[in-house]
Design a protein that fits this description.
Blueprint: H1 11-41, H2 43-52, E1 54-60, E2 67-68, E3 74-86, H3 88-92, H4 99-108, H5 113-120, E4 140-143, H6 148-156, E5 164-174, H7 183-186, E6 189-191, H8 194-199, E7 212-214, H9 217-221, H10 223-227, E8 231-237, E9 243-250, E10 257-260, H11 264-281, E11 285-286, E12 291-292, E13 297-304, E14 310-316, E15 318-319, H12 330-337, H13 348-351, H14 361-370, E16 379-381, E17 384-387, E18 390-393, E19 401-403, H15 405-411, H16 414-427, H17 440-447, H18 469-487, H19 494-505, H20 511-517, H21 528-540, E20 543-545, E21 550-554, E22 561-563, E23 568-571, H22 576-592, E24 610-616, E25 624-630, E26 634-641, H23 646-662, E27 712-713, H24 743-746
Parallel strand pairs: 2-10, 15-27
Antiparallel strand pairs: 1-8, 2-3, 3-4, 3-5, 6-7, 8-9, 10-21, 11-12, 13-14, 13-26, 16-19, 17-18, 20-23, 21-22, 24-25, 25-26
């Protein structure tokens, strides 16, 4: 028996449930009443308060810091321009939304009314450019090219131009002091994107919509230091966007100054000499192609041998970085980036890749010594070298008989290096390699820093290529389908024969691969900055420095100076004795070797010069000229794509740069008063108490007589040079690999 009702609920439980229901309904009624009070009875009051408390920000961009050369000369700074701007907030208060004011403004500025009104409209998905994509509370620039007379008219007739301002504003300028363009090193600016703003939200240097940021060169590397901190003025606005008050404001903080190791005087000379060398090469006849050399691109690097600091870096073709100031037109952008322009935005000193030719032989000589071949032993410098019926000729088929490695470097004897590389290939097992082959010639190249970036403080550097066994396997895997498809062709041309060979055994390290590699040919790719780093290391005793362009960052008030100290990323894999012998051999190149005819009369006893010439072959193109050199102070490397021989095309220009540095005349006499930089600049420019930096005035170098139009590309005048690039890596996959070049080509290498 039980006393529980059929409902399963006692009277006590029922009372509790009723009480809970009453409590819940009471709470809901109270909440509903409060919501009615806030949203209905006093809704307008609170809505107005919320609108009145809405804050809008007006951004005042910071003045961007300057980029100076080593002596304080401005390479990139700011110039004052009269900028006419319109306040959209003020215009919207007018009955006609400011149409009459903008029409009068257009008349004063000699612009079409529609051109002005379009600039102040806000951008959205349906509104094409021109339009304003910044804050509607920000003054909207109409023009930054107003004349003084136009600005005075606007300010004197202020009642006719409410909401319009004409103020001096800092605008970026690339000064080109003494005609030192320095375009690819400096880089350029462009407006920030929404994606970049979002990515930088939580960084130490957040971006604002009004910011412009560096897109290449030093402008990009040191962007956060140069940009400074924008000023922010906060306005309280109502729900109609009307300003009701002014809130807390933050003043703009100017950007820091970047002092570089570039010397504008040397930069101007280097640019001029590179350009002149390319023009001279175009007048020389190429016997292989039966036409003049194209000399379509080139680069030169001047580096401090003991620190890795860059004194000059030039790339050709070049352009005027001022073309980007204030925004670049679509037409000019196409001219700078289109195929016919030959890509002047590329910095070929760090992005141009090519086979190095004989300047690579310092690596091969070191590799041979490390593999057990004595430097002073005698090796046969024959006129040709035969492997399985294929003949690899020495330069101009000339032989010197038994010579040591030093003399082989001096006269750039190919066959000595062919023989050493072939012997080492055999020791490593030939076509059936050992499980752990020595691969000294390839390992040594990696130890010299090839196949990796040097770490220079410029964006976009490429790593080049060392075609070792792993690369061969990867390259074969990527291209075997194309090779094997072409191998089935019934054609019997050169490219098809190469495809058949590569299809069958392209993954193997063949004898011809190693032989051609030993003289800087085949699939090897290097950049000028890599070779400058290597030759400066030979000069300084073996230290591989990270190349640097930035030398110091100085705060706007001049009180904080952060120097960029030289840092090393390794040592050359050569013993002191080997380095000394290589050093002596490279001096011999200048006195009685392949560069002697270009350095006759040089004061070798007072300024010991060391050099190595190189003439590299690229499939489907004319030869690439290389010239690598150094003194105890400086290292200079120059290359000219499709320019001819190393000593022929680049040699004279390199000598002229040294002559300017040390004040050497054509007879070899030294005039210290005419020397631009007989020793590297060690100190920073003088900083005044107010933070300004002293800068000497420089004169432009004497210009060579123009023989043809220079390949300098500026806005509206772009795209005049032939379509060819320095990069040898753009050849088709059917290009010959090492060991398969025609005999005629093999006979042209080495110098």
């Amino acid at each position: 028996m039980t006393n529980i009702p059929e409902t399963g609920r006692t009277s006590r439980v029922t009372i509790r449930l009723v009480a809970i229901q009453i409590l819940v309904f009471s709470l809901l009624l109270t909440l509903g009443g409060r919501l009615w009070y806030l949203q209905i009875r006093n809704g307008d009051e609170y809505s107005n308060q919320a609108s009145n408390n809405h804050v809008q920000q007006v951004i005042e961009p910071a003045v961007r810091g300057s980029i100076l050369d080593a002596r304080g000369v401005a390479l990139a700074d700011n110039q004052t321009r009269l900028v006419v701007s319109a306040s959209r907030t003020e215009l919207m208060k007018m009955a006609d939304d400011g149409e009459a004011v903008l029409t009068r403004l257009a008349e004063v500025l000699d612009l079409e009314p529609k051109e002005v009104t379009d600039k102040v409209r806000l951008c959205d998905a349906k509104t094409p450019q021109p339009c304003w994509n910044g804050s509607p509370y920000q003054p909207i620039p109409i023009t930054d090219e107003a004349t003084t007379q136009q600005a005075l008219q606007i300010r004197e007739r202020a009642e006719d131009f409410p909401g319009i301002s004409a103020e001096p504003t800092a605008v970026r300028r690339y000064a080109a002091p003494g005609d030192a363009n320095t375009a690819q090193v400096l880089g350029y600016l462009s407006p920030v994107t929404d994606d970049e703003i979002k990515k930088a939200e939580d960084s130490e240097s957040p971006l604002l919509r009004a910011d412009q940021i560096g897109r290449s060169g030093l402008e990009r590397t040191y962007d956060s230091q140069l940009r400074g901190k924008a000023g922010v003025t906060r306005y309280e606005v109502d729900n109609l966007g009307r300003v009701t008050g002014k809130g807390k404001s933050d003043a703009a903080v100017p950007g820091s100054t970047v002092v570089t190791s570039i010397d504008a005087r040397v930069q101007a000379i280097a640019e001029k000499e590179l350009d002149a060398a390319m023009k001279a090469a175009r007048k020389e006849h190429d016997r292989n192609t039966n036409q003049n050399y194209k000399a379509d691109a080139g680069a030169v690097v001047v580096m401090e041998s003991k620190t890795g600091r860059i004194v000059s870096m030039a790339s050709n073709p070049t352009y005027d970085p001022n073309a980007w100031v204030g925004g670049i037109s679509g037409k000019d952008y196409q001219r700078l980036t289109g195929k016919d322009s030959n890509y002047p935005l590329l910095n070929r000193a760090i992005q141009g890749q090519a086979a190095p030719g004989s300047i690579f032989k310092v690596i091969s000589a070191t590799a041979a010594v490390n593999a057990g071949y004595a430097f002073d032993n005698k090796y046969d410098c024959s006129s040709a070298f035969n492997i399985g019926g294929q003949v690899f000729k020495n330069f101009e088929s000339k032989g010197y008989g038994p010579i040591d490695l030093g003399r082989a470097l001096e006269v750039s004897c190919d066959t000595v290096f062919y023989d050493l590389a072939y012997k080492q290939w055999q020791k490593d097992g030939g076509n059936n390699p050992k499980k752990k082959p020595g691969d000294y010639f390839y390992k040594t190249a990696h130890q010299f820093g090839l196949g990796e970036e040097t770490g220079i403080d410029l964006p976009g550097e490429v790593a080049g290529r060392v075609p070792d066994r792993q690369w061969k396997k990867d390259y074969y895997k990527a291209n075997k389908d194309v090779w094997c498809k072409q191998a089935k062709s019934k054609k019997d041309d050169y490219a098809t024969r190469v495809a058949r060979e590569n299809c069958a055994e392209g993954m193997k390290m063949r004898a011809g691969d190693s032989v051609n590699y030993s003289i800087g040919q085949g699939d090897t790719l290097v950049t000028p900055i890599q070779m400058a780093t290597i030759y400066s290391a030979i000069s300084n005793g073996g230290t591989l420095y990270d190349p640097t362009v930035g030398k110091a960052v100085i705060s706007p008030d001049g009180k904080q100076v952060k120097e960029v100290k030289p840092t090393s990323h390794g040592k050359l894999p050569m013993h002191g004795d080997t380095r000394n012998k290589v050093n002596a051999a490279l001096a011999g190149v200048v006195t009685n070797g392949s560069a002697a005819w270009r350095f006759g009369g040089w004061p070798q006893d007072k300024i010991p010069m060391h050099a190595k010439t190189g003439t590299a072959e690229v499939y489907g193109k004319q030869t690439t000229s290389w010239f690598a050199s150094y003194t105890k102070d400086y290292t200079i490397v120059m290359t000219i794509s499709q320019g001819g021989t190393g000593s022929g095309a680049s040699g004279p220009a390199v000598r002229n740069i040294y002559s300017a540095l040390y004040g050497v005349d054509a007879k070899g006499e030294i005039d210290k008063k005419k020397a631009l930089l007989p020793t590297p600049q060690r100190t920073l420019p003088k900083i005044e108490k107010d933070g300004t930096i002293e800068a000497p005035h420089i004169k432009p170098p004497k210009k060579a007589k123009p023989t043809e139009e220079a390949p300098v590309l500026a806005a509206g005048e772009l795209g005049r040079t032939p379509v060819t690039t320095l990069d040898a890596g753009d050849r088709p996959v059917t290009a010959p690999t090492a060991g398969t070049l025609p005999l005629a080509a093999a006979g042209r290498r080495g110098q």
